[in-house]
Amino acid sequence: MKSREVHLTENFVGEIKPDYFEIEEVEIAEPKEGEVQVENEWLSVDPYMRGRMTGVKTYVEPFEPGKPMEGGAVGRVVKSKSDRYAEGDYVFSMYGWREAWTAPAKGLMKVDADLLPPQTYLGIAGMPGLTAYVGLKRIIDLKEGETLWMSAGAGAVGTSGIQFAKAMGAKVIATAGGKEKCDLCRELGADAAVDYKATDNLAKAIRQAARDIGSSGIDAYYENVGGDHLQAALDVLKQYGRIAACGMIARYNDDRSVPGPSNLVQIVAKSLKMQGFIVMDHIDLNEAFVKDLSGWMMAGKVTSKETIYEGIEKMPDAFIGLFTGENVGKMLVKV
Amino acid sequence: MKSREVHLTENFVGEIKPDYFEIEEVEIAEPKEGEVQVENEWLSVDPYMRGRMTGVKTYVEPFEPGKPMEGGAVGRVVKSKSDRYAEGDYVFSMYGWREAWTAPAKGLMKVDADLLPPQTYLGIAGMPGLTAYVGLKRIIDLKEGETLWMSAGAGAVGTSGIQFAKAMGAKVIATAGGKEKCDLCRELGADAAVDYKATDNLAKAIRQAARDIGSSGIDAYYENVGGDHLQAALDVLKQYGRIAACGMIARYNDDRSVPGPSNLVQIVAKSLKMQGFIVMDHIDLNEAFVKDLSGWMMAGKVTSKETIYEGIEKMPDAFIGLFTGENVGKMLVKV
Q: Which residues does UniProt assign to the signal peptide (chains A, B) (predicted)?
């Protein structure tokens, strides 16, 4: 069986050019005992892949020129020599940037393509969606009628989180940087969106937004940012407020000497709970998540925003398009 | 019925003198419908009372010269015109600094003098003890074999917390200021005690203490202090560590501009949980607490440290003694 796959011609920094990519046709091996052969149907392009193209080793290995790249993919099993998968099953894998592949069944993840469109497992039903869900359901335990502040509302976690919180019956105030991102948050259902770049008093802006939407105050804060956002959250949260922290992106590049919020004593004064988490520790929620999500999508409460390019040869264009703003929502390539 | 009670002769600041107190004999009214008459058996003197003697209104009303002062007391009901109490019942009240009193039954708290010695309800079985218990049981959920760092180990909450954590099967590292306080912590059962005044690297000293007692690291931190203690805790806590915060005393007098810990991102990096609480929100645990505490005391695992003066006329001496270090453990007056 033949498959086309995308290689880098060289590692690079700076502007991305189509010349850095080439398509090659290869022969796919027959599956051995314990292996499956899969035809990819959907391929993901993600901004983080940019770092792997530079050739510099960070927390993941760099992509090597002349070899197939990796990335999220959803495909259909066409041949199986594993008890785990039957022909016709859909699987999520990291064997993206290629049309087909053969690999051990162990380490793949089965997805239910009857419940949700298969490509959603690369976006809203995938890791970013589950991260949003875990934070809201388990860490915050968001209740109907409560008010949530979703930070980084236009990000991968934020766009899911806004929709899920609305579907759960909460009021949502989103923050994002710039008018366009705030418009997106409102379009996704946020009751209010605050442009943090356009205010010098974030706490005051959040309190005003809460009054504007008839909320009695902020019950919970979804922390993706840190820094001035966390400081404002500690100030505006109500008694017994909850903070789910899955990222403090403003802090990642800091020198260690950058001080934390000066109002941390609010945790004691208002009996707040703040909890950090990583999604991998809460994979047990995935089943409930997929069930809730399919219900919400069928009821029209949650939509998967996608921009779709067709054909493996469009992978470089799709990837480059991420950085020139060609996509609304999740950028995908349909094989 | 006659009762002697202690009055202030005047409000004062600075050094406390016996002249500021006088004993007066008064007639106690017969109880009316819904009231009880109680003979106090145990009276509490506490450092916080000092503030109420200055005549300055803070978060509580100041004591007025010529009137009976207030304070924790445990007494026996001698006459009851209330369904809530029978003669012979023991009650905790704030009608201290006097031998006997008549008051509405509503607002008193019944205590079980068969389960625990009545005076313990002013100390280890009272609010400081319950605060320690709630933090360990509900907020931290301390498990057998885990290692707890108890800050302010020689304080009212700390002395209880060290003993309770040991009774729960945990290893305990206590911190306190000075050799004497550290000796007290060890005497109460702490596996290690670190004098925070004698180290310029608290995190390193805690890690060393953990190694010394054969612990694999700090699972939980009981926060009473804030500041450099919290910074060190965020550094030394293991993955999934829990922080119970019932006070950050180092922060209470701070100007708002004092920065928080620079390593708060550890909450995300190590999936930590930090939760503030006040004991009044967890009064539902009191029954389980009294039951556990009586079991621990009968088994000799927990002891109530008390210094006892006898007679209402010794109340001023007992109170003054608090500030000259006359007490080991809880300072009490037996009527």
A: none
